[in-house]
Design a protein that fits this description.
Radius of gyration: 35 Å
Strand content: 15-25%
Number of helices: 10
Distance between the termini: 69 Å
CATH architecture of the largest domain: 2-Layer Sandwich
Structural class: alpha/beta
CATH class of the largest domain: Alpha Beta
Number of domains: 3
CATH topology of the largest domain: Heat Shock Protein 90
Helix content: 40-55%
Order of helices and strands: EHEHEHEHEHHEHEEHEEHHEE
Length: about 375
């Protein structure tokens, strides 16, 4: 089956055109033209993959013709036939015409066919690269559009749920002021806990939407790293103690100051520590350390919990990632073992670190636990290694 794209022979001698056609037409669709102008007009109507041009033609020379095809049809493969090769001609064709191959006259059929075959293979490979790049660009565009839609959905959900939740919280507060029986008071307590839990989830959706769209203020300042980490650890100590989890801190003998927003850095640390508590079995161990590393302040949160499957590591910092476990196992016990959250925490950590021009990385394996590392730029003082 002949290719859709043709081979075009351009020569002012009809006999030479017929010779090229005879040599190639069994395997390829061959077009002919007697001048550069005729060839350009033909290429405007027909898809051409490879042109074979005589160098010496009256009017527009082969070099001029090929230079024009570079501007109009840059993907076309160009071959020159010349009976008078000289250095200047060769350089001109290479520089202006981007010539793939030169054939001297008289040429052999076998050599011409080999040059055409290899040239068309080159054309097909380049076309395939272009096709694949177009597919990648289209996939990236779709992914970007889906990410934007997901961010809008998060923001819309948080906004739409915010008002009824506020009303529900006020209603519960009013009920507390009424004289209630013990049984009714119990249900009011239960309702309050449920609404507060739901409000916390909505707040996380709102924060996640802000972080994904970079619409959250980051006020960078010099922050002493160790005290901030110690404060974040203190917030989960009570829950860890209930489950006999041992949190071991090594906050460094040297003081480390980093450029950070203390609120959002604390938020990121809280997300990592909460994950470590939730995915470490009762009686397990969690390690937290800080250190300086060549201009960077480093925080490591490591657990010896259930770990992350290799197939989920690449998406661990994506919203609603399966790395957090089966969403059907989502639990309302915030720091109970195995309780899955909304699947937004690690995505928010990544967004926060990017806003700080820092980084987050993970090393994990099933049954071995997970090790998350945060890196932030040190404040340019003497308090950083």
């Amino acid at each position: 089956m002949l290719s859709e794209h043709a081979v075009l022979a351009v020569d002012d001698e009809p006999a030479n055109q017929r010779a090229v056609r005879r040599a190639l037409s069994d395997d390829w669709r061959v077009l002919t033209a007697g001048s550069g102008d005729e060839a350009l007009a033909l290429m405007a109507r027909e898809p051409v993959a490879l042109v074979i041009a005589d160098q010496r033609m009256p009017g527009m020379s082969g070099g001029d013709f090929l230079a024009e095809t570079v501007q109009r049809y840059p993907r076309v493969i160009r071959v020159v036939l010349t009976g008078h090769p000289d250095v200047d001609t060769l350089l001109d064709a290479i520089n202006r015409g981007h010539v793939y191959h030169f054939l001297g006259k008289p040429w052999e059929v076998r050599e011409l066919r080999q040059v055409v075959r290899h040239g068309l293979e080159r054309f097909a490979a380049a076309a395939e690269r272009v096709r694949l790049l177009d597919e990648v660009r289209a996939a990236c565009t779709r992914a970007q559009r889906e990410a934007e839609q997901k961010s809008r959905l998060l923001a819309l959900t948080a906004h739409e749920l915010g008002t009824p939740l506020h009303i529900a919280l006020n209603a519960v507060a009013l009920l507390r002021e009424a004289e209630l029986s013990a049984a009714s008071a119990h249900w009011v307590d239960t309702a309050e806990r449920a609404v507060v839990w739901l409000a916390s989830g909505v707040a996380q959706l709102h924060d996640a939407a802000r972080i994904r769209t970079r619409r959250f203020p980051v006020q960078l300042q010099s922050v002493a790293l160790a005290p901030l980490v110690a404060s974040a650890v203190a917030e989960v100590q009570a829950a860890a103690a209930e489950r006999a989890l041992d949190i071991v801190c090594a906050l460094g003998a040297e003081a480390v100051d980093v450029r950070a927003d203390p609120h959002w850095l604390r938020y990121a640390l809280g997300a990592l520590l909460s994950n470590a508590v939730r995915f470490t079995p009762d009686g397990g161990r969690i390690e937290v350390l800080t250190q300086a590393d060549d201009g960077w302040g480093v925080v490591v949160v490591a657990d010896r919990g259930i770990g992350i499957a290799p197939e989920h590591l690449a998406e661990v910092f994506e919203p609603f990632s399966a790395a957090g476990g089966d969403p059907l196992l989502h639990g309302s016990g915030r720091l109970a073992f195995g309780a899955r959250g909304l699947g937004l925490g690690l995505a928010m950590v990544k967004g926060i670190m990017e806003a700080h021009e820092g980084a987050v990385a993970v090393d994990s394996a099933p049954g071995r636990g997970s090790r998350f590392t945060l890196r932030l730029r040190c404040t340019p003082t003497d308090r950083c290694g």
